[in-house]
TrEMBL record:
Protein's name according to its UniProt entry: Esterase family protein
Pfam family, one: Esterase
Membrane-spanning intervals of the chain: none
Organism, as annotated: Paenibacillus germinis
């Protein structure tokens, strides 16, 4: 795999920002790692960070490069600070950045596929929420999305870590319902369109503070008939589980079967 620490200017944010990118590389003599690469345009996983983290965290806390190497998939890890992947009421337009600008910029820099069947999004905690928010808002762009311990209902008073920041991010809590930030509303909407809904994977530990909202969202998707794979097990909000579960997510992704070079 090739690893790129990419710094660039964002028109949406009006500031310079960063992303980590790992790209497939076909190698024959590298010791201890099997690398594979497919065609000229790589399938891509947009991998999102949580509230207290940044774009470096997946590389620091997991072996995501090693996990992705065998699959021939690119991984794009952007920085969004503590934005909840929203156009903040008092702050930066991170939703415009993540939903409109990021993929176009990444494809202009790197050989990434623009086909729906080659694009996926996943994340942990705040990033799990962001992954579902992105895929459900744009079912025509993403084949699958995965949430690890994501807070499924950001209007819930139990959301950990926001505190007084909530109004800075979302403004009036009453505006969330029925909006771009409401995953339940987005699930309703995507279930009523003629566009094939993205496959969804949802994991949460039973001792996690997001557990109740995860169960509610699971049940909501079940009623709508959406294709959601749900898993839970004893666990809290921590990296030991996320490191294991991102491997499960990679195995679950509906990657197209292409001839890979190794």
């Amino acid at each position: 795999m090739a690893f790129i620490d990419c710094h660039f200017y964002s028109e949406s944010l009006k500031i310079s920002t960063s992303m980590y990118v790992i790209l497939p590389q076909s190698t024959h003599s590298q010791i201890g790692l099997v690398n594979r690469a497919g065609g000229t345009k790589h399938p891509t996983l947009y991998l999102l960070h949580g509230l207290s983290d940044d774009h470096t965290i997946w590389m620091r806390r997991t072996s995501i490069e090693r996990y992705a190497a065998l699959l021939g998939i690119a991984v794009v890890m952007p920085a969004v600070n503590r934005s909840y992947y929203a156009n903040m009421a008092n702050g930066y337009n991170y939703w415009s950045f993540i939903s409109e600008e990021l993929s176009a910029l990444a494809r202009s820099f790197f050989p990434l596929s623009d086909q729906k069947e080659d694009n996926f999004v996943a994340g942990l905690s705040m990033g799990g929420y962001g992954a579902f928010k992105l895929a459900l808002n744009f079912p025509n762009k993403f084949a699958a999305a995965a949430s690890l311990s994501g807070p499924m209902d950001v209007s819930d008073n139990q959301i950990n870590g926001l505190g007084e920041e909530f109004q800075q991010v979302f403004g009036d809590r009453s505006t969330i319902h029925g909006s771009t930030n409401d995953l339940f509303h987005l699930a309703d909407k995507v279930s009523q369109t003629n566009i094939a809904a993205p496959l969804l994977y949802q994991y949460c530990g039973t001792e996690d503070y997001t557990y109740e909202s995860n169960k509610r969202f699971r049940d909501h998707c079940s009623k709508l008939g959406l294709d959601l794979t749900y898993e839970e097990e004893p666990g809290t909000h921590e990296w030991g589980y996320w490191d294991r579960k991102i491997q499960t997510v990679l195995e679950w992704l509906p990657l197209r079967q292409e001839k890979l070079r190794n």
